[in-house]
Design a protein that fits this description.
Elements (H helix, E strand, L loop, with lengths): L6 E2 L2 H10 L3 E7 L2 E7 L2 E2 L3 E7 L3 H8 L2 E13 L8 E15 L3 H16 L1 H4 L4 H6 L8 E16 L19
Antiparallel strand pairs: 1-8, 2-3, 2-6, 4-5, 5-8, 6-7, 7-8
Length: 179
Amino acid sequence: MRRKDREIADPTEIAKIMSDAQVGRIGLSMNEQPYVVPVNFAFDRERIYFHCADIGMKLDFLRTNPRVCFEVDENLGTVPGPAPWLFGTAYRSVIAFGIARILTDPDEKAMATKLITTKYAGEQMADMITPRLTEKYRSSLGSRLVVVEIKVDSITGKHREISPTLQDRQAPMVITETG
């Protein structure tokens, strides 16, 4: 990481950012074509889980190239500067790299679906999920539930806080107009 002063190294803080984030973005690549898509997800410190329909670009990309990148962020506000080009953003973010795989075992699918459901709908709803239900479920369009696990190889966090001082600011550039 270029800006070590902004690095988040504490795994507990990284896990908190991941659990607080409502949307993650998965970065995929196939035949030199990148693709980034937002997903709802759950994180257990070693793995990221998300679900999707059984057809679509995500799965096409994953089946071709299971190496992925995953990102979450939280915008904390604008950091004012003495000149327009010196404004910035305060944020917290996490980026993970790993290998994705489609879960086929009904028990694994149910466990991952419970994690995701607990995060977004609570434990009472998650308790309704069974391996049999994950196999029988069909969306209103008829697609099966697919659950994907990303085994995290590396994960980093980064932050920039809103500071009352502008100590980290460069001196403004002088702009002159010439006719």
